[in-house]
């Protein structure tokens, strides 16, 4: 069983030992045994023993309502109250207000794309109004609807919002939570008719009932915003769905016979949801995944499985082949979700080019698997690269650092970005 490394943390947070992430006991994660599959051999390091299935929120963030209460939750509230009171006593009202702004408005309704629609084209009296249309790029897809109901979960320092909604997948039949974030450029009037690229961010661990990329403490959204300002990142819309239908088993982000159709959820329902609510692109040039550990596997597998819909993936610290115990008795279906076999098929058929950027910390294991995949399948339409994260461990903080150091720029060069209106 994998031992979780000490994670980096701000000095004002409880220690990792005092406040272990959900699903861990004494720094370890015990995967439940699948009934009726007692003969299964222990897994190699892959989707089950992941660090940080739910990272600590920074103070000022609202923890998710679902699931059992977190350890130390009341102590956290006391700590926040003490800090605010002390700040006020010391005349630091501005400091206290800044801290409180992190979670002001949590639970309130959120609307994305607040710019007013462009004026309709002139028409004859009595004729119906002409709906707003994208200008310039025919690849732009305006929101198709119906709109989802979003509630704020976190506010970032630049005023942008992370919000959550409940999605009932029309094609998969699965219903789960989805978090979203749109960069401030999305509400800029000069981009009102432009599409935006979508980055579907997948967590490690079981990825249920939450997606830890929706936690501001990991810094994914800030890394994108900073990259936009520096000219090294596109202003991605980030979609953060739950990865699994429950916290009991791992489903490899696939349609395993007899189980929830998580492959359809990820490849069909989640993109359809993004298209319904945001200005996106019709072509795959505006669609990519990023993920850590088990999420990296699902992202890479989905891109290879659907190269007509998705173009790229940033796969951090992930595995290469499916290994859910639920595949037992379904070898053919398992092979159809194996990235090695999918990559070979893409090479043999000279399919559309896909781009895989592996990230791996120098303090974690698994690079040999990535290297072997690159050597065997990184050719023809399968474009691969490996980024080493110096002193990096198996956690989201270090993977975001790798994205800031080059992976965000890499994926931004592969995809297309929004174009401002002329004039």
Which series of helices and strands comes N to C?
Answer: HHEEEEEEHEHEEHEHHEHEH
Strand % is 15-25%
Shape field? globular
Strand line-up of the largest beta sheet: 1-3-4-5-7-6-9-10-11-12
Question: Can you tell me about this structure?
Answer:
With about 425 residues, this protein is of the alpha/beta class. Helices cover about 25% and strands about 15% of the residues. The protein contains 9 helices and 12 strands. A hairpin with a 5-residue loop joins β3 (about 150-155) and β4.
Concise synopsis of the structure shown:
By secondary structure, the chain is an alpha/beta fold. It has helices at 73-89, 93-100, 220-230, 262-277, 294-305, 331-335, 339-348, 367-377, 396-414; strands spanning 109-110, 140-141, 150-155, 161-168, 175-181, 198-202, 237-241, 280-281, 287-292, 312-316, 354-361, 382-389.
List the helices and strands and how they pair.
Layout: H1 73-89, H2 93-100, E1 109-110, E2 140-141, E3 150-155, E4 161-168, E5 175-181, E6 198-202, H3 220-230, E7 237-241, H4 262-277, E8 280-281, E9 287-292, H5 294-305, E10 312-316, H6 331-335, H7 339-348, E11 354-361, H8 367-377, E12 382-389, H9 396-414
Parallel strand pairs: 6-7, 6-9, 9-10, 10-11, 11-12
Antiparallel strand pairs: 1-3, 2-8, 3-4, 4-5, 5-7
Helix pairs in contact: 1-2, 3-9, 5-7
């Amino acid at each position: 069983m994998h031992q979780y490394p000490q994670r980096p943390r701000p000095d004002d947070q409880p220690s990792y030992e005092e406040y272990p992430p959900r699903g861990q006991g004494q720094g370890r994660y015990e995967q439940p045994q699948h009934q009726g599959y007692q003969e299964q051999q222990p897994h190699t390091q892959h989707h089950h023993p992941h660090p940080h299935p739910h990272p600590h929120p920074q103070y000022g963030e609202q923890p998710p309502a679902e699931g059992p209460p977190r350890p130390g939750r009341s102590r956290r509230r006391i700590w926040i109250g003490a800090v605010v009171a002390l700040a006020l006593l010391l005349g630091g009202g501005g400091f206290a207000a800044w801290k409180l702004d992190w979670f002001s408005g949590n639970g309130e309704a959120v609307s994305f794309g607040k710019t007013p629609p462009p004026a309709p084209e002139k028409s004859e009296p009595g004729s119906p109004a002409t709906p707003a249309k994208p200008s310039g790029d025919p690849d732009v897809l305006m929101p198709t609807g119906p709109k989802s109901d979003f509630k704020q979960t976190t506010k970032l320092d630049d005023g942008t919002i992370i919000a959550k909604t409940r999605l009932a997948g029309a094609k998969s039949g699965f219903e789960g939570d989805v978090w979203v974030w749109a960069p401030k450029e999305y509400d800029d009037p000069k981009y009102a008719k432009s599409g935006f690229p979508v980055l579907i961010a997948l967590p490690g661990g079981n990825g249920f009932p939450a997606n830890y990329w929706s936690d501001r403490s990991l810094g994914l959204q800030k890394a994108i915003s900073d990259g936009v300002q520096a000219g090294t990142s596109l202003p991605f819309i980030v979609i953060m769905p739950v990865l699994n239908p429950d916290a009991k088993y791992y489903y490899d982000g696939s349609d395993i016979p007899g189980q929830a159709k998580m492959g359809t959820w990820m490849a069909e329902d989640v993109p359809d949801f993004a298209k319904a609510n945001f200005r996106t692109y019709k072509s795959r040039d505006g669609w990519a995944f990023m993920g850590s550990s088990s999420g990296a596997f699902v992202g890479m597998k989905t891109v290879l499985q659907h190269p007509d819909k998705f173009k790229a993936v940033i796969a951090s610290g992930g595995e290469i082949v499916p290994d859910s115990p639920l595949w037992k008795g379904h070898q053919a279906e398992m092979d159809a979700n194996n990235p090695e076999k999918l990559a070979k098929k893409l090479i043999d058929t000279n399919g559309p080019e896909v781009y895989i950027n592996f990230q791996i910390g120098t303090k974690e294991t698994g690079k040999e698997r990535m290297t072997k995949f690159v050597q065997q399948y990184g050719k023809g339409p399968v474009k691969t690269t490996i980024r080493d994260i110096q002193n990096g461990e198996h956690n989201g903080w270090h993977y975001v650092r790798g994205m800031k150091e080059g992976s965000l720029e890499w994926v931004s060069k592969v995809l297309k970005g929004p174009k401002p209106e002329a004039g």
